[in-house]
Amino acid sequence: MDGGITKLLATRVPHKRVIAIDANPAMTAYGQSVNSLSTIEFLTQDMCVSWPELSDDIRRLESKVDLIFSNFCFHYFNDKSQLLSQCRQLLATGGCIQAVCLLHHDLNQKLPANARKVWCLSIDQQMNVWRRALEGNGFAIDVFECEDETYPMNRQQIIAFLPVIIATLKSKFETNEQFVSETRGLEDVLFDVLCNPVADRPNPNAWTQFLANKDVNEVVIRSKVLRLVCHKN
Predict the structure, then answer these.
(1) How many other CB atoms are found less than 10 A from the CB of residue 111?
(2) Contacts of 206 (CB under 8 A, 6+ apart)
(3) Fewer beta carbons within 10 angstroms: which end of the chain, N or C?
(4) Which residues share a beta bridge with 146?
(5) How many whole angstroms from its chain centre is CA 147?
(6) Using an 8 Å Cβ cutoff, are 212 and 219 in contact?
(7) In the chain, what are the domain boundaries?
(8) Where exactly are the transmembrane stretches of this chain (predicted)?
(9) pLDDT tens digits along 126-179
């Protein structure tokens, strides 16, 4: 959380109070340091825990929140149903969620049959997980759309970005050892999916070749995102 979205919300959305939450205390402190508006409050909280484990500051907001806004954050939560259950408890009747979520790339479309990952869901499967979690928690869905996004990146940006994308998979595993084991060597296939998602033939050396070719200074990353708006009846 760099505070940019928080400041934008506080200046454009009518409100009494904006509460910005991040699991990392350093990011919470930074967001607070660059925002001086008196109506913004910053809290450090890991929202992956169960409701009873949340801080008193969070639980005191039960049934009082009008809007929950998430910009590329919800995809870090492996248990979508628990996340949405907590959102429902926080929201007042009629309160809504507006979120943009990254959908994980379907690596299996690039992997040979004997190397496919059981934890890697297709885009349709991921959409179904979200829809079931929303309906199971009694949300009325207003917008539920999968969209294609493209992001031009220079060489330095993509070299820094690829490990971040791999890190988003961490929530799929119970231990760090499992995460390291399952994602070891995925850079080539992930880079291939990011840059050439519909290519007929996978390139098993895509990342290795990119790093070796110093003449390639820009790439275009292709991703799918879920745009979600729902409300509590």
Answers:
(1) 17
(2) 188, 189, 191, 192, 195, 196
(3) C
(4) 226
(5) 14
(6) no
(7) 155-217
(8) none
(9) 999 999 999 999 999 999 999 999 999 999 999 999 998 898 888 889 899 999
Helix/strand/coil for 56? helix
Three-class SS state of 146: strand
pTM: 0.89
* Strands 65-71 and 91-103, sheet pairing: parallel
3-state secondary structure of 225: strand
Residues in the chain: 233
Q: How far is CA 215 from CA 152, 159, 192, 203, 208, in A?
A: 16, 14, 18, 19, 14
Q: Is 153 exposed, middle or buried (0-12, 13-18, 19+ CB in 10 A)?
A: middle
3-state secondary structure of 17: coil
Distance CA 183, CA 165 (A): 11
CA 229, CA 207: separation in Å to the nearest integer?
A: 36
- Tally of CB atoms within 10 A around 63: 12
User: Is 104 exposed, middle or buried, given 0-12, 13-18 or 19+ CB atoms closer than 10 A?
Assistant: buried
Could you report the per-residue pLDDT of 67-98, keeping only the tens digit for each? 999 999 999 898 999 999 999 999 999 999 99
Whether 117 and 203 have beta carbons less than 8 Å apart is answered as: no
Measured distance CA(60)–CA(56) in Å, rounded: 6
